[in-house]
Design brief:
This protein is of the alpha/beta class. The chain has 13 helices and 17 strands. α11 runs parallel beside α13.
Length: about 400
């Protein structure tokens, strides 16, 4: 019996090594990785720039704590601010921690500005913000809340992208609005640009904060550095992680100067957040992602993938109901049980990820090329055809 807590429904696969967009088992079986560790290995496996950065830092110093100045942390913070709306950055180790810091920053902002009663956040049905007690309360999904006692107080959830519903949920205790520009776990549902723009205006009118969770949609995943850029808006606070470390645990909370000033010494902290190893890798990721032409490559590959998938959806309309998402963050809304398609793809050497609303997530590494996209689509074609045959035989 395993010594591990049984919190995961594991596939049974075990990988010995990876290269680019592929993973290999100990026996040498090859799998096309269109899961990227759930949007984490943004530059694929064994990227030489990341290996170089991690190895070099490992030979210097691993950990000193945030009691001391960390040069690589300062550098990564400055680069993130230069490339985004932000003026200040707090480094953590995961997406959930980054969202937790964002929630605390939103509350703290109002506290130091004389409105301590403003601590609640408006959130959206179907969202996923992490697995801590506060973030499962923010997400509001019963399957994540079950068995953990009363949900953490302070979240008011609305259904759909309805501005009137959001406005009705805003009260004297509201600190801000929290949402994902693309709901990854929630079924790859894109938030309409107009809704994001109207939400920004509403937050300004109500003197509350717009908090974005870009843990999955950020760091180039959609063809822009962060997905909200497509809507031509800026948040007050943003959580980022996953691709930021390319596989090394890195999370960050980005804020405007006004919000950042509220986070005074002792108001928040992290033992491991922003450690030298993580910062070296994070800077290496930005070396690649922010290089000229890289995001254009992501956008081009994303367009190719969606065009090919649209054709497959037409051909296999009894299996695929809809193609969702943007860039290299794409979902297949299924007419069959999504796990059947996931299993069929895995049997044919391709890894994908389950999502809510009966969706299969496709999250290839951002370095993916035309050949790998064409291979993925051919595999999806074969798996869909097999499901069709299986259904007819069982009819």
């Amino acid at each position: 019996m395993s010594a591990l807590l049984p919190t995961y429904a594991r596939s049974g696969l075990s990988f010995a090594r990876g290269k680019g967009a592929f993973l290999f088992t100990e026996a040498g079986e090859r799998y096309l990785d269109f899961s990227s560790g759930i949007a984490v290995t943004a530059l694929g496996h064994a990227h030489p720039r990341l290996i170089e950065a991690l190895t070099a830092q490992a030979n210097k110093v691993w950990h000193v704590s945030n009691l001391h100045h960390i040069a690589e942390q300062e550098r990564l913070g400055e680069r993130l601010c230069d490339a985004t709306f932000a003026d200040r950055v707090f480094f953590a180790n995961s997406g959930a921690e980054a969202v937790e810091a964002s929630i605390k920053a939103a509350r703290r902002y109002h506290f130091v500005n004389g409105a301590p009663e403003r601590y609640r956040l408006v959130t959206f049905g179907g969202a996923f913000h992490g697995r801590t007690l506060a973030t499962i309360a923010a997400g509001g999904q019963s399957k994540h809340l079950e068995g953990f006692g009363p949900p953490v107080e302070g979240f008011d959830q609305v259904s759909g992208f309805d501005l009137e519903a959001v406005e009705a949920a805003i009260g004297d205790e509201t600190a801000g609005v929290l949402l994902e520009p693309i709901m990854g776990e929630g079924g790859m549902r894109e938030v309409p640009y107009r809704f994001l723009q109207d939400l920004r205006t509403l937050c300004d009118e109500k003197d509350i904060l717009l908090v974005l969770d870009e843990v999955q949609s950020g760091v180039g995943r959609t063809g822009r550095f962060y997905a909200h850029e497509w809507a031509d808006i800026t948040p007050d606070i943003m959580a980022t992680a996953k691709g930021l470390g390319g596989g090394f645990p890195v999370g960050a909370c980005l804020t405007t100067e006004a919000v950042g000033q509220a986070m005074t010494p002792g108001s928040h902290g992290s033992t491991f957040g922003g450690n030298p190893l993580a910062m070296a890798v994070g800077n290496a990721v930005l070396d690649v992602v922010l290089a000229p032409g890289f995001l254009e490559h992501v956008a081009q590959m994303g367009l190719r993938l969606k065009q090919r998938l649209a054709g497959l959806a037409d051909e296999h309309d009894d299996v695929i109901a809809e193609v969702r998402g943007q860039g290299l963050m794409v979902g297949l809304k299924c007419k069959v049980e999504n796990q059947k398609l996931i299993a069929g793809l895995r049997e044919r050497g391709m890894l994908t990820v389950q999502a809510g609303d009966n969706v299969v997530r496709l999250l290839p590494p951002l370095i993916v090329g035309e050949e790998e996209i064409d291979l993925a689509c051919a595999t999806i074609d074969t798996a869909c055809a097999a499901l069709k045959v299986s259904a007819s035989e069982n009819a």
